[in-house]
Amino acid sequence: MAQDRAPTRxxxxxxxxxxxxxxxxxxAHGFRGATVDQIAAQAGLSKPNLLYYFPSKEAIHAALLxxxxxxxxxxxxxxxxxxxxxEEIIAYVRRKLQMSxxxxxxxxxxxxxxxxxxxxxxxxxxxDLKILVDExxxxxxxxxAEGRIARVHPYHLIFSIWSLTQHYxxxxxxxxxxxxxxxxxxxxxEFVETLYRRLLSPA
Amino acid sequence: MAQDRAPTRxxxxxxxxxxxxxxxxxxAHGFRGATVDQIAAQAGLSKPNLLYYFPSKEAIHAALLxxxxxxxxxxxxxxxxxxxxxEEIIAYVRRKLQMSxxxxxxxxxxxxxxxxxxxxxxxxxxxDLKILVDExxxxxxxxxAEGRIARVHPYHLIFSIWSLTQHYxxxxxxxxxxxxxxxxxxxxxEFVETLYRRLLSPA
DNA sequence: GTCTATAGCTTGATAGAC
DNA sequence: GTCTATCAAGCTATAGAC
Lengths: 203, 203
Fold this sequence. Notes:
The structure is a homodimer.
Chain A: H1 9-33, H2 36-43, H3 47-53, H4 57-77, H5 85-102, H6 104-115, H7 122-145, H8 154-170, H9 172-179, H10 184-200
The first copy, chain A, binds a DNA duplex through residues 2, 10-11, 14, 35-37, 45-49, 51-52, 55-57.
């Protein structure tokens, strides 16, 4: 921030514009592949002006990741231990798929980071992410023990939901290259719902 | 190549060493994030010596991708229309998971490329990949029409196999951050096999 | 707050000795 | 075939005018 006072409207607006531009560029080229020039051009600002709002390229990237991990995990947080097990999980899958559709850039930003070894968010994965997943795995295990959903490895169940749903954002070009003009998001929801109903319906 | 004659043993060995080093570095940092210096160091050569074997960084990357797409699709090519449908698909999933375990660097090389829009292999995706997938989708649709496996969207079925199996290579750090010391590959095969048996067993 | 100009570094690739 | 030295371009970040 340029000053210690509360940000003005212009400052808020410019920071938001920069972050949106940076999301676009980082998602498409990775941290190293993105240049400050590209981000500035995308944001409609000069390079020094952009660096007036953020001290460095690194700082822009960090600001993006920090805000995003929380948002990204919201659908899992909403998984309700008091709800009907199968429907809760299906609803989680649907929310996750919807995020891939609405926020593919955010998904690819994370994908870039994690494929390359998560050098900047490994701590967050080991702490925040692990704690949340462990908590929800406990819920799922209870449901399985009560025979309300079929028994499968709960961690792999969650990984499968992540991989399946994020695939449509992260590997979008490949999916579309194979499917042609048909929009994958038209048919994906029904497929994933069928998959998890058959996998988890009590025997 | 340095000369037009057939490569000597030393040339072959050095080219192989360079490609292996480049795979390591490109997989970990992406094309733009990798430097020729890093690759040379990893290969135990000087930078000019490396560029004696390949004309440019671009050429090394292209050589890697070219050789790899074929290998990567071999498991799908092996899907046999004459075999027992469910067992053929399960065997495909197992082979694919095994490749993620044995060749995680190759998986991440592709992941980096595709997440960033596949600028260098989009043509191969639209031609070679699409042709192969369309052919195998036809086989799967026949099986479904004959009632030998349950009916699901065949393209999404294949995407699900790719995403599920490659997730263990591409998102390895995240998987391990969540699961802790336990090796995900110990329990993954059983999970994916269960998943596809329940999804595809005829009603 | 925003710009032009530029410092200072990293990187891909080449020259030329051995 | 392999090296040291180096060039030219591209990059992040800053200086300083307005």
